[in-house]
């Protein structure tokens, strides 16, 4: 006969209770230590190269071994990986204002910068975290304290959600970086605007703010800007991988040259190297990329869809939503380059544009792209989803192995030397018009400035 389950003895129960008390005490002690570090950071005592334990003394090296760069100051104290819930008291219940918890977590990370290198990973467990205070997630407001490296790590873009709900949307940004941080990483996070017209990120740079990376992140809700870039140099080397851009944008998800804070407005031209890979760009209305100050941009793979229409007419955009809007603003012609490859676009109505480009120079290249998903609809014959304003210096436009709907429009502002081509289509398939009427030319345009090589029309 088998014996039934037995009650644990009083001794083992006491052992477990003591362990639980010990664990709780340790957690409280760690949280107090982290909170104390954040408090010191707020006073500036731990920022930069102060505080912590001395760095180890250098060891002797063979004469042939390369010498490591000198590391000055003191190694920061505290944990390198922290949790906004267990260490800083965030609730993540979708109701509680977690602004203070995230602000303390950021101040703690800023306090651990040593020799200008950040050494903290902020873990954000599954949950819905409400942040009402602007810049609570990231507040890089000390441009004289250069820092390199900060990582925000969620549990999954549908598992860890940050809800930005400021009292007013005017000039409200969830993140700010004023020429302080480089090498920022955001992973597996979902960002939602609960205050229509709020913005996600303001980045100002005269040389420091660069190397941002977003991996498996998602944006929903109504924003004014996703990322607004400003300044006179860099704001560069930014990468988005397997992200979803949803929601709606009163201006654009990524916008270059927000103001003219540069001493010389013509220097707002160093917006370069933005990579978008395997994206789901499926938002309701607005612009995806808007680069009036030029830029070097590469988009590879994914699906790009505008699912709705702007709710009202606007002075600048009307009802139009544009994936790639590149107007021309006064600046040096440092970089104007755009490349799109292996992307499927949907043009669901005449107010959706794939590209509207008026750059004064540079190149635009589409390779193996398809925007013909709705070419069978009645409005498709009349749409012009690709529009260019061309000058004597370009931009030069090229399409390779693309399937294209509607017609493309070219407006030539100033005369171009006779016989020079400004646009070329190679082995493309036109779904709604024959080759000889696919390009619509206006202004000073002449026949032959748009060339077709081995293309097929309707």
UniProtKB/TrEMBL annotation:
Rhamnogalacturonase A/B/Epimerase-like pectate lyase domain sequence ranges: 82-183
Superkingdom field: Bacteria
Region feature Disordered, mapped onto this chain: 1-27, 51-80
Stated name of the protein: Rhamnogalacturonase A/B/Epimerase-like pectate lyase domain-containing protein
Protein's organism: Wenjunlia vitaminophila (Streptomyces vitaminophilus)
